[in-house]
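Let's sit down with a protein and look at its sequence and fold side by side. Go ahead whenever you are ready, and we will take it from there.
>
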Amino acid sequence: MQPSTFRPSIRRPWTRHRLSRHPATPRLSTSQPACPRLDFRSDTRTVPDARMRAAMARAEVGDDVYGDDPTVALLEQEAARLLGTEAALLTPTGTMANLLAPLAAFGPGSPPPRLIAGSGTHMTFLESAGLRRFGRIELTPVAQHFGGLPDLDALAALLSAPADRPTVVCVENTSMMHAGNALDAAATRAVAATAHRHGAHFHLDGARLANAAVALDVPPAQLAGPADSIAFSVSKGLGAPAGALLCGTSAYIAYARELRGWLGGSLHQAGVVAAPALIALRRLPDLAADHRRAAALADGLAALPGVTVMRPPQPTNMVMARLAGLSARECAARLAGHNVRVLPLPNHHVRFVTHRAHDMIGVREAVGAVAAVAATTGAGRRPTENSRTGSSP
């Protein structure tokens, strides 16, 4: 499977050869709107609450292009402190942060780098086309162990191969296609050491690094410490309506800020975006409740006949399940008929992501919907997947 063939499209479904950012799952009729408590497609489905909306309304603003928006400045300072870096840069999306990260890695005048990332990462599946088109960056996938850690021998072999350009190595934490597994600091340090030994820049795609930190009960800075740059999203489980932070040294961020302008990512009165993001940064402890709901959901699904559940070593807010006799798309379609929305994946599982809109009642209803769908397949009971199921080399 070649990552370059994956192109994000709002109209195309997940297939063997193409991955969509928003896969086409059957639409519910207007008389049966999606219920937020039963929409498990992603934690991007969170909406700003009353406190965030009030903060947006009263945000003190300037013009971030001129560097004088005080709310943006405060957000960038707090994000840098949270992740233990010298500086941070607000970007409209995590995708832009991940594009800026390798482009800024080696400073002005350097050729576009090659990028090595796990074969099951967001950057490989959904961002490689943008990296190639807008940054002339060719992404090389590397095999991952179950849990999301790149295979260090395979990584070292790629890094040892002759290259006519500098190299960026990326690790994703949490690991999207590995049931949201949280990688600990030791794992990250091992990859960073391999990358640095070969003169590579080490980037951490920490879109859900907050979830990893909460699951592992460590400060985010501990997980970010080995990285030369970090992308950190505030618009997923933390609940802000938009935004991500790219973090690194002051010199690195200064160049990334220049590149952001060239890419059209500069905002003017961006304090209205930064204000809810500041609230999001203070809500890391709330993610523990999302993890508890995900654990209850996984346990409930694993007890159902005909259902297997992927069990990562360090679970967070994702649950990946598979129903015997149904493709992921068929499963998602039937669950949509019960008003439960999930994301079909190319690994034959459907993904549930718990977030602040969910409660235990919704979790039980989701389990009941899966039970009803499983009952229609006539499949016998299958064992719960253990920590090796679905692993890659």
About this structure: The longest strand covers residues 167-172.
